[in-house]
Write a structure and sequence with these properties.
Strands 1, 2, 3, 4, 5, 6, 7, 8 and 9 form a nine-stranded antiparallel sheet that branches. The chain has a single domain, classed as Single Sheet (Histone H3 K4-specific methyltransferase SET7/9 N-terminal domain). The longest helix has 21 residues. It has one helix and nine strands, in the order αβββββββββ. With 112 residues, the protein is an alpha+beta fold.
């Protein structure tokens, strides 16, 4: 009986340690297969905070997106691969309030 309880407690401890190791905390970075940065952001106890950036394989910024308490909040910017601004979206507590779009030459267009 005591051996069974010890085994169960040991399994629970292992599960908790694995969860803690998987927890995103602090700076988070991933890389493309060519070694260039793919994603950059900050996390606090698995909740995204601060600015998240995604990058194209060529190193150009694809997305800049502000986060607060795990929700998009503020001005989000999406870029074409040539670096030209593609889209701006303004968010409040995870809900998009306004948006503007541009083609890859910088001409303002209707958002899809």
């Amino acid at each position: 009986m005591e051996t069974d309880i010890l085994i169960v407690v040991s399994i629970i401890i292992v599960i908790l340690v694995i969860r803690k190791l998987r927890e995103k905390n602090g700076l988070y970075e991933t890389y493309h297969s060519n070694g260039n940065l793919e994603e950059w952001g900050h996390w606090e106890k698995n909740i995204q905070v601060g600015t998240q950036k995604l990058f194209y394989e060529n190193g150009q910024v694809m997305l800049e997106q502000p986060w607060e308490n795990g929700e998009v909040h503020g001005l989000s910017k999406l870029y074409h691969e040539n670096g030209q601004l593609s889209r701006e979206e303004n968010y409040e507590n995870g809900k998009m309030k306004t948006k503007k779009c541009w083609d890859k030459n910088g001409k303002e267009i209707e958002c899809q």
